[in-house]
Specification:
The chain is of the alpha+beta class. It has four helices and five strands; from the N terminus they run ααααβββββ. A hairpin with a 2-residue loop joins strand 1 and strand 2.
Length: 152
Amino acid sequence: MDNVSSIFLGLGAWNWLILAALFFVLELAAPGIFLIWFGIAAGLVGALALLFDMPWQWQFVLFAILSLVAVLAARKFLRKDEAQSARPLLHRRALQHVGKAYVVADAIENGRGKVRIGDTLWRVEGPDAAEGARVKVTGADGNTLTVEPEKA
């Protein structure tokens, strides 16, 4: 038996506890929370190996099973909930204007023009309209607003 395998077999359950500590340290350096589940599985295998005399082959099988269970449980219970925001359009500036009416700043010709919203000119698409006409925003595609003539 060579030195590496004798060290591995000689440490026994402590191998798993060292591996668990290594996973926990790597978790600190890696983004997200993924390696922690393998660390927990390795720690559990180490604890069980200290309590019960298990051959190393069964320890590996137990580690694989516990790792799979830990990762699947984490995926199920830590899934990001799509929390409802008090301001769902906060980072969707163009959609904040849907349903509002504005004055055309640059005439809409050939389906394109501009409206003034606050101190900003926004590109718009819609039916032709003269400068000064009022249009209502019906949608947005990126930073381009879709408009239609405002009904009186």
